[in-house]
Amino acid sequence: MFGKVKPFIPELKMKDFTLFNQYYCGLCISIKNNFGNLPRLSLSFDVTFLAILLDSLNDEINISKKCYCIRHPINGTTVKLNNDVLNYCSFLNVYLSYFKIEDDIEDESKISSKVYKSILSKYIKSNAWDIDLNYMNSELKALKEYEKKTEGLNLDVISNPFSSLIGYISSLYFKGHPFENSLYSLGYSLGKWIYITDAYEDLREDMENNKFNPICSIFNELNLPYENLKIHIDERIEFTLFNLVQDCKNKLSILPIKKNTEILFNILSFGLMNKTLNVFMDNF
Q: Does any domain span residue 79?
């Protein structure tokens, strides 16, 4: 369900492409410093976006430094040095990955997922930002309960727990600030876009393998084959996703952004739109 919030490279200036990579690698280094090397495998594009977004609301001037790692052993790469936002996002990255692995185990019970969960479970520890793991877990459990019984529900209701979770982690860092609610709303809309995009992207495979899919469960009352169901729902899903993309852009525009403006609008405009269009093309 993660890994969908990325920049659209063809419309990205070189300086912003470099900037995104600096945050991406900076988050990786922060995960290493806070948890060690193994959790770096969980590094997420979506959490990188959140780090850029939250840091753009800070007055703090970032310092960059060349670092060396397995991926860049010879020439190295320039990264954003550890700051509080990157540290916060490093914890989120590991927590979200842990919960995702739990979800994968419930859905598929893969041995590899169980092994990775046992590894990540050692890194679930207290944090300086009062990130409420019980709340995060309860929202994901509520999502699972909705998915077990979708009768009488719609996509707004089913996606609400995941959307609320993304709204929560997007706004917690600036709890008490005047723009906390705006961050929550942006995260909520982004979370709904992620959930519905993921469901539509997996629709064909889920139907072929007789697995649960919220879109199929809600809209396929006539038990149509995939090709017929797609014709029936495409316009509605496309309308919903495009509206969510626009809502994310609108919410971003009212935030007091101090830096990283171009990369943020690239991700929420071109990046989300490109992903949405590709999902529809891939399922054609």
A: yes
Tokens 């993309």 label which residue? 245
Q: Give which of 263, 246, 267, 264 is closest to 255, Cα–Cα.
A: 264
How many distinct structural domains can be found in the chain? 1
How far apart, in Å, are the Cα atoms of 56 and each of 49, 51, 52, 104, 118? 11, 8, 6, 33, 35
pTM, to two decimals: 0.91
263 Cβ contact list (under 8 Å, min separation 6)? 7, 12, 16, 19, 20, 52
Q: Is the dihedral of CA 104, 109, 113, 115 positive or negative?
A: positive
Q: Residue 85: what residue type?
A: V
Q: Is residue 4 part of a domain?
A: no
Specify burial of residue 166 (Cβ count, 10 A radius: 0-12, 13-18, 19+): buried
Query: Residue 237 sits in a domain of what CATH number?
Result: 1.10.600.10
pLDDT at 172 over 70: yes
Instruction: Identify whether 1 is part of a domain.
Output: no
Which of 102, 89, 185, 184 is CA-nearest to residue 143?
102
What contacts 119, CB < 8 A, 6 or more positions away? 38
> Looking at the domain assignment, is residue 3 inside a domain?
no
pLDDT grade for 82, boundaries at 50, 70 and 90: low
Please write the tens of the pLDDT for every residue from 179-235: 999 999 999 999 999 999 999 999 999 999 999 999 999 999 999 999 999 999 999
Range of the domain at 164: 9-282
More reliable by pLDDT, 60 or 246: 246
Q: Any idea what DSSP says for residue 101? A: H
Share of the chain above pLDDT 90, in %: 69
